[in-house]
Amino acid sequence: MKKNWPLWEVFVRSKNGLEHRHFGSLHAADEEMALENARDVYTRRNEGVSIWVVESKHITASNPEHNGELFEPAQDKIYRHPTFYELPDEVKHM
Amino acid sequence: MKVDLYNYILGIADNSLILGQRLGELCGHGPNLETDIACTNISLDLLGQVRSYYQYAAKIKNDNSTEDDIAFLRKERDYVNVLLVEQPNTDFAYVIVRQFLFDTFYYEFLNELQKSHDVTLAAIAHKSIKEVSYHQRFSSDWIKRLGDGTSESHQKVQAAVNDLFMYTDELFHQTDADIAMIADGIGVDTGLLKANYYSKITKILEEATLQVPEHKYFHKGGKQGIHTEHLGYLLADMQYMQRTYPNMEW
User: Fold this and answer.
1) Which residues on B lie below 8 Å from A33 (Cβ)?
2) Over the stretch A20-54, which tens digit does the pLDDT of each residue have?
3) How many CA atoms lie within 13 Å of B111's alpha carbon, on the beta-carbon side?
4) How far is A47 from chain B (nearest CA, A)?
5) Residue B100: which of B144, B149, B51, B151 has the closest Cα?
6) What are the residue ranges spanned by the domains of chain B?
7) Are B64 and B104 in contact (CB under 8 A)?
8) What class has domain B3-244?
9) Candidate from A32, A33, A41 with C-beta closest to B37
10) How many CB atoms within 10 Å of residue B204?
11) Which CATH superfamily is domain A7-61 in?
12) Whole-structure pTM value
C-alpha cells in the first residue's frame, strides 16, 4: 500500500433521466475496485442509480495557463448570447 | 415467554452485533480511506439488522426491556455469538478472512431463514439479504486480490485463513434452541448448509491460490456463552457508555 493506487474519477447519475455528474475521485487498484469503492464512498446515502468510473489519467484537461487564449475571446462577444430578440408575448418559459 | 425463540433470535443477532462492533473499530483506522468506509458501511448494515432482531427479542421478553438493554447490558456469558466474529482485527487479512468466512455462511443462512414460519424473522431475513449479498461479494473479491496479489499479501492472507479456519465448524453447531426451532419450522437447519458452505469456501480459496487448511480440531463454545479472551475487551469498550451513564441516550 506504500505505492499509491491510481486515481479514478467518479460520475454518478442521481436519478433516471438525469445525466451522470462528477462526484469526486478516489483510489483503487483496478476498475472493479473503483466501482465498489465509489459505491461505498459516494452512494451510501442513496445518492445514485448508476456509477461511471474512469481512470483520471485518461482525462485530457485544458491547461490553466492557456485560459487567456481559450476563454477570454468569448468575453466581449455578447452578441453570441441569444438576448437580442424581441420575444412575442405568447412564448412562455424562456 | 417463548424461551427457545428468544434464544434463537439472540443466536442470530449476537453474531452481527459483535462483528459490527469489530468492524466499527476500524473507523478512522482502515488501511486507506476507501476500505475504511467500506468496512464501516458493512458494520452499519449489520448494526441496522441487529436492531430489528433485538426489537423483536424485546417484544418476546415482554418485561420492559428495550433493544438497547439486550444489546448493551448483558454479561459476557450471556452473549451467544460464534467465536469467529469476536476474533480481533489483527491485520487487514484477518479482517477480510473473518468477514469472508462469516458472510458466506450468513448469506446461505438468511436465504433459508426467508422461508421461516415465523413471519418476522422471514421479513428481517428478506430485508437483510441484499446487504449481505454485497458483503459477500466485497469479502470474496478481497480474498482473491490478496491471495493472488503479491507474495506478501498471499502469505498474510494464508496465515489468517490458517488461524481462523478452526472457528468455521461452530457456525453449524446446533444448540437446544436451534434444534427446537428447526423442529417448529422456524429455524434454519444449518446441517443442510454445511457441505455447500465448505465447497463455496474451497472454490474461492482455490481461485485465490490459497490452501484450504486440513483441520482435525475445531473450536466451539461461543454459542454456549464460553468465549475466547477477546470478547471481554470488546464488550468493555462497547458497553462503557451504558455502564458509566446508565440509561443515557444520544
Assistant:
1) 141, 145
2) 999 999 999 999 999 999 999 999 888 889 999 99
3) 13
4) 15
5) B144
6) 3-244
7) no
8) mainly alpha
9) A41
10) 19
11) Phenylacetic acid degradation B (3.10.20.520)
12) 0.88
Judged on CB neighbours under 10 Å (0-12, 13-18, 19+), B121 is buried
**Predicted pLDDT of residue A4:** 82
- DSSP class of residue B227? -
Cross-chain residue pair A33–B141, CB shorter than 8 Å:
yes
Of A32, A40, A44, the CB nearest to B34: A40
Q: Helix axis angle, B3-24 relative to B176-183, nearest 10°? A: 120
Search chain B and give the residue with CA nearest A29: B145
**Cα–Cα nearest to B101, from B225, B227, B226, B212:** B212
B34/A28 touch (CB, cutoff 8 Å), yes or no: yes
Q: How far is CA A17 from CA A12, A20, A48, A51, B12, in A?
A: 12, 9, 12, 14, 41
Query: What ipTM does the predicted assembly reach?
Result: 0.74
Q: Cβ separation of B145 and A33 shorter than 8 Å?
A: yes
Give CA B165 to chain center in angstroms: 14
B37 CB near a chain A CB, below 8 Å? Answer: yes
**CB-based contact B41 A26, cutoff 8 Å:** no
Residues 6+ positions from A73 with CB-CB distance below 8 Å:
none
pLDDT of residue A15: 87
Cell 480511506 belongs to which residue?
Answer: B33
CA distances from B211 to B141, B157, B198, B203, B204 (A): 17, 10, 13, 11, 10
Instruction: Confirm or reject contact between A36 and chain B (CB < 8 A).
Output: yes
Q: In this predicted structure, what is the pLDDT of residue A17?
A: 87
